[in-house]
Design goal:
It contains one helix and eight strands, in the order αββββββββ. By secondary structure, the chain is α+β, with helices and mostly antiparallel strands. The chain has two domains: 1-35; 42-147, Sandwich (Immunoglobulin-like), CATH 2.60.40. The protein has a five-stranded mixed sheet with strand order 2-1-8-4-6, with no helix packed on it. 16% of the residues are buried.
Length: 158
């Protein structure tokens, strides 16, 4: 009788151990998969600048790795656009942020979704209020691309 209890106890311990290993494996796999959505798959950093002037207006075509707004007068604005391509085979979310002295002048979408192999026009508007401090403002625009789950009916058309 004592032997049967030990045998039964050993089987229960074995089953619980196997169940624990299976649960742990599934949990780690799920954690790894969910963590893939938190890390950017690509990061772009673009330099940006604008000069606020009292009288003169000028434009600057800049370089491929920057967004230059040129020179604008107080109370005016300048707009620049770029095309963001999703070259991945999965949907992505682009999170756009800014740092530097230019940021309080910029207007842009903070978050954009793209389906695989699609594109989206991103517009950046530098807007100087009538009392803006004159001078040169600069900073960086950072675009972080993440894996995303996008609803099927979400439109990527402009």
């Amino acid at each position: 009788m004592e032997r049967r209890k030990k045998s039964r106890y050993s089987r229960i311990i074995l089953l619980l151990t196997i169940l624990l290993v299976v649960i742990l494996t599934i949990s780690l796999t799920l954690l790894y998969y969910l963590n893939q959505f938190k890390k950017p798959v690509k990061t772009l950093v673009l330099k940006t600048n604008v000069t606020i002037s009292e009288h003169k207006i000028a434009f600057d075509l800049g370089h491929n790795d920057s967004i230059n707004f040129g020179t604008i007068k107080r109370g005016s604005e300048s707009k620049r656009s770029l095309i963001l391509y999703n070259t991945f085979n999965f949907p992505v979310k682009a999170e756009i942020s800014c740092n530097g002295s230019i940021c309080n002048l910029l207007l842009f979408d903070n978050e954009v979704y793209l389906q695989p192999k699609s594109q989206k026009d991103l517009e950046f508007l530098a807007k100087a209020n009538p009392f803006e401090v004159l001078g040169y403002k600069e900073g960086n625009i950072t675009i972080e691309i993440y894996r995303a789950v996008v609803p099927k009916n979400y439109s990527t058309k402009p």
